[in-house]
Batch of 2 targets.
Target 1
Amino acid sequence: MGSFSIWHWLIVLVIVMLVFGTKKLRNVGQDLGGAVKGFKDGMKEANADKPADAQPTQPTQQVGGQTIDVEVKEKTKS
């Protein structure tokens, strides 16, 4: 069972348009777009509210042209 071809998706789209109608699909699309926009705005506000000190940064190291995340551990004396 492979992936569907473009013709399968076109037939599905036509059936969905016949069942729901274009007006209802347009309203659903607008509602979904508004929800995504609201979510993005909320995420921007949440990030703007945090002070710069609160955001932890993880050190990185350049090795052979690639960036590698490293974890810093302090040594304890026995």
Target 2
Amino acid sequence: MTELPLSDYLVLDLTIARAGPTAVRLLTDWGANVVRIEPPRERDASGGSVTGERDGPDQQNLHRNKRGLAIDLKHEAGQALFRQLVARADVVVENFRADVKARLGLEYKTLREINPRIILASISGFGQDGPYASRPGVDQIVQGTSGLMSITGAPGRGPMRVGIAISDTSAGMFLGQGILLALLEREKTGEGQWVHTSLIEAMLSKLDFQGARYTMNKEVPEQQGNFHPVQVPMGVFESSDGLVNLAASTGRMWNSFCVALGATELAENSDYRDVRSRFRHREQLNQDVNRITSRFSTRDLVARLNEVGVPCGPIYNVGEAFEDEQARHLKMTKTAPHPRLGEVDLVRSPINLSNHPHEPRFHHAGPNTGEHSEEVLLELGFNENDIQQLMQSGAIS
């Protein structure tokens, strides 16, 4: 097997919760040597956190492929050890408050003195400075503060959260991209830098065209429920045995929709003659489309409409989504060997590289606190004597 693209890089992962680990997961899935650094003693015996139990699906999916090293960063010897690791590392990823960073010596100016090539990657709720910088920021709060909840859900039903931790995962994805950009630039300059983003920056960016409707035209988007805010028809419609998603918003797709389902009266309706007219009459049009689609089964609609180039699909629950024939063909799950749980199935990276077909297994399950402390330090050149002294002092475990 060829080495993965990031196999030459050593990453020190000090992150907790979800956003930071999402960024690190991008690196470890593509070969980075990621060492998850945690305090020697867990906050509670079960390893519980905002992402659940250590052996639970959330933590295992976030921390697969990492190895665990337990260091007490408040211990003088632990601090000295961490500085030695920084001297060898390529990337440090953290999501501490600014005052904690300063107290633990994790500020970029401090790390840069140890290793000018180091890349510090930081993630926060509301940014590294500004009036909200000291606020705790979690996904639910930022979904509201970013405006996302105001455009999610059905009109008149009040704001609605998105069903996944979209702020956390988006910020993590952007931070991962930022790390890769910094590594690329370091190839030219030989110097590291501080990369940072936040949940609020990520979500304001992810508003995308909805955000641009405001920034350009001062138009404040509103909830549209299951229908697209500007393209018609595009949304959820009834079938004879359930519901479907369909999109027939262009002229070609609209005509194909009408022909495929025998909707001659819609094709000939002057109110629906072009894109602008269909948008002006969207409420009536959606009702008319629903009347047509409700005559056909979901399976029939999916077959008929996709055949003529009109996007149409079923609305699955999560189990059905993973068991769908296309998801199974794409092999979206991989197993990880776990010392207590056996083989666990986790969700693989969605990135596909032609030079590196996905292996069927992850090389590590999510680690226990300090599970690989001795192994990692030996690999990095520490001798057994030094390691035993660090353990006896309580600096590591």
